[in-house]
Amino acid sequence: MLPSGPARDYRSSHVSTVVRPIVRSYKWPHLERAASWVKAGGHAVVWISPRKARLVFARPRKGDESDLGWWSALDLGRSEFSVARRGPFSGMAFIRVPHDCYGIVRERVARDSSHPGATREMQLDCLACAACCKDNNVEIEEPDLERFASAGRADLARPPYARRDDGKIVLVLRKDKRCKHLADDNRCGIYAIRPDACSTFPAGSECCLSAREEELGIVDR
Ligand code: SF4
Ligand code: SF4
Known about the structure:
By secondary structure, the protein is α+β, with helices and mostly antiparallel strands. It folds into two domains: 10-16 and 125-216, no CATH class; 23-114, no CATH class. Helix content is 27%, strand content 22%. The protein has helices at 10-13, 31-39, 68-74, 102-112, 126-129, 142-150, 196-199, 206-216; strands at 15-21, 23-27, 43-49, 52-57, 82-83, 93-96, 119-125, 139-140, 162-165, 168-171. The strands form three sheets. A five-stranded mixed β-sheet has the order 2-3-4-6-5, sandwiched between helices. Strands 8-10-9 form a three-stranded antiparallel β-sheet. A hairpin with a 2-residue loop joins strand 3 (43-49) and strand 4 (52-57). The longest helix has 11 residues, at 102-112. The model is unreliable at 1-11 (pLDDT under 50). The chain binds iron/sulfur cluster (SF4) (2 copies). One iron/sulfur cluster (SF4) binds next to helix 5 and helix 8.
């Protein structure tokens, strides 16, 4: 899994309703059908050949760090996307699916095969879940350091709360892999000043679904 750390305002309301894209697989030459699926809100895995796949999704709005298409790409190890300039996908975003992620996109398609529409509404109770606060790799960035300092908690960027990892500052996990700030009732102990990586993590994203599956064994079939 990529980034992580949950928590947006849902921590105060517990349950949030999210609408997530449903993933379908299309083979060449059914590109028009794939484009229609994406226009309806879904994600399309388009197989140009058995060794060449693209993930196509609606172009994220500029500055929208919670866009589910972008997080879907992030979950495949891609932090950037291209935009198609011509053809059926014109104006849509796409990434090349890495070969070692073919299994992951096939699993997404299998998981979503029972959902009929291009999108699906889900109720997620983050307080009952907290999967993304476990076994994660939350990076602390400059804005986080400034926020910690303003709150008189500059210590949050140092041991025992944070450590250096390959030149980056990351949150420390306990031996049981829970974030050090995660309380037994699944509340975040530094919620008001939590890192941006946590506050921008979108419920219902592929990273969220992966965390729920890995930590809790919950698959959204
Ligand atoms: S700081 Fe830790 S407990 Fe708080 S939201 Fe981030 S990962 Fe979860
Ligand atoms: S994994 Fe998803 S549902 Fe669970 S706490 Fe994180 S954002 Fe909420």
